[in-house]
């Protein structure tokens, strides 16, 4: 107790806020939002598309006004020196802890963006239920341009106005927030096959303040968002990664591996991979060729680097140009799912990618673009790929096509699936293990454990597990 003569005496508090998990569960079970019906959200998104001018046009590299190929390196850089660069990456990967195991080596273009961006969702209670403020945001790489995104989605260059545009709306809620109002705050990775050591700050901050009613924003419950996650190209990647970090109550009685065993297995996987990554000049990357409108692989696989000119009426800057990475083909990301003594488990893969900060992260059972492996014999194709591609409809628990990060990738889309696989053994091949959704949710409290594709699938699993009540 304070004497009134000095600062108040410090008091301990519970390490876990069980009440917040219960509030999350209530929001997930509520399909009738206090501010919007779900079918109104679809109409609202369509209206916002009509309300603004959105144009994305492919252009030759020579027509880029704000970007240039750097003399000497050939790297694609912004004239301000900010935002991001397209460089080269040289990777040597070995399964031996000292580089003494089987290895593969390759070079490729990669996006380097050392800035840590903010992906922030504002939360607030209406009628006793948590709602989340989602934005209808245009990204030039999205196939339908405008999708449901976090309240704030901004790089440091954006929110410090390096582009000389308008301020990022509502960004102040995520600068030094009240610790008692923070529901999620964690650094998470992005695609390690396309980004070089990229991280973003994933945040959910609750507010009790009045928030301006803005045309491009809507309050939704987790139950409403869950329904929208079943639709193609609607909830963007940045919203999915933040939502995957929400801590739902875990009611499962146990798991095949204890948490300590799962972490020990993962630490062993990180230890046995030796990955040496070196940034190299884009002009020197082997196996890739530069043309007038694209940098592409000699075999026509993987992805291209292209340039676009953009107009967007509701962005901080309404007119700009930039490079984008364009994948070749539709990707597939899938978890194989089975119940073990009545407890749902998913088969996770300790996946190494050249752009990861720390060798490997937990990934879906299958994560690839099938077309890149079509020329290979079955024994050289990714494990379990054919199991996923050949799955009968009744074995598919969840399926939707989602877009990847539309600010850096053009028409990057993946088919996300949860596939029943009761015939897959409890002792899977090296590099794979079974984990419960609750264990994966616990790991999202920490950065660089689950990759972004696994986090999307975790958000989709949360959506399939929700049992919304009430009408839409």
Automatic annotation (TrEMBL):
Superkingdom assignment: Bacteria
Name of the protein in question: 2,3-dehydratase
Span of domain dTDP-4-dehydro-6-deoxy-alpha-D-glucopyranose 2,3-dehydratase: 38-246, 260-461
InterPro entries, A to Z: EvaA-like (IPR005212), EvaA-like_sf (IPR038153)
UniProt-recorded Gene Ontology molecular function terms: lyase activity
Region entry Disordered, spans: 1-22
């Amino acid at each position: 107790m304070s004497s009134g003569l000095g600062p108040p005496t410090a008091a301990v508090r519970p390490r876990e806020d069980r009440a917040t998990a219960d509030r999350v569960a209530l929001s997930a079970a509520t399909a009738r939002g206090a501010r919007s019906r779900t079918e109104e959200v679809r109409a609202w998104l369509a209206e916002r598309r009509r309300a603004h001018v959105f144009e994305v046009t492919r252009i030759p590299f020579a027509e880029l006004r704000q970007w240039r190929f750097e003399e000497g390196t050939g790297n694609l850089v912004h004239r301000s020196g900010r935002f991001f660069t397209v460089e080269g990456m040289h990777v040597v990967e070995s399964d031996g802890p000292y580089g003494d195991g089987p290895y593969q080596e390759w070079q490729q273009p990669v996006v380097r963006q050392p800035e840590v961006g903010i992906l922030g969702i504002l939360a607030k209670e209406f009628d006793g239920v948590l709602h989340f403020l989602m934005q209808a945001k245009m990204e030039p790489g999205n196939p339908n341009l405008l999708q449901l995104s976090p309240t704030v989605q901004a790089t440091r260059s954006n929110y410090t106005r390096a582009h000389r545009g308008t301020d990022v709306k509502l960004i102040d809620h995520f600068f030094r927030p009240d610790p008692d109002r923070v529901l999620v705050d964690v650094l998470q990775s992005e695609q390690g096959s396309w980004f070089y050591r990229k991280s973003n700050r994933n945040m959910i901050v609750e507010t009790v303040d009045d928030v301006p009613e803005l045309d491009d924003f809507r309050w939704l419950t987790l139950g409403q968002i869950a329904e929208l996650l079943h639709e193609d190209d609607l909830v963007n990647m940045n919203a999915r990664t933040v939502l995957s970090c929400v801590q739902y109550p875990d009611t499962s009685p146990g798991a095949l591996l204890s948490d300590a065993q799962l972490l020990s297995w993962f630490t062993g996987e990180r230890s046995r991979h030796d990955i040496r990554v070196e940034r190299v000049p884009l002009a020197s990357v082997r196996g890739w060729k530069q043309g007038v409108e694209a940098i592409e692989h000699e075999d026509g696989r993987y992805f291209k680097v292209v340039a676009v000119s953009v107009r967007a009426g509701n962005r901080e800057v309404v007119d700009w140009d930039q490079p984008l990475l364009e994948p070749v083909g539709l990707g597939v990301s899938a978890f194989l799912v089975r119940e073990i003594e009545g407890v749902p488990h998913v088969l996770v893969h300790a996946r190494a990618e050249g752009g990861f900060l720390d060798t490997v992260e937990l990934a879906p059972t299958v994560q690839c673009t099938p077309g890149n492996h079509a020329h290979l014999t079955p024994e050289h194709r990714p494990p379990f790929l054919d199991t996923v591609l050949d799955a009968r409809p009744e074995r598919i628990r969840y399926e939707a096509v989602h877009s990847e990060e539309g600010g850096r990738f053009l028409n990057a889309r993946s088919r996300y699936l949860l596939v029943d696989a009761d015939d897959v053994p409890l002792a899977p091949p090296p590099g794979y293990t079974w984990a419960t959704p609750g264990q994966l949710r616990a790991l999202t409290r920490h950065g660089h454990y689950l990759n972004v594709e696994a986090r999307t699938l975790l958000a989709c699993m949360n959506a399939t597990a929700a049992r919304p009540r009430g009408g839409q």
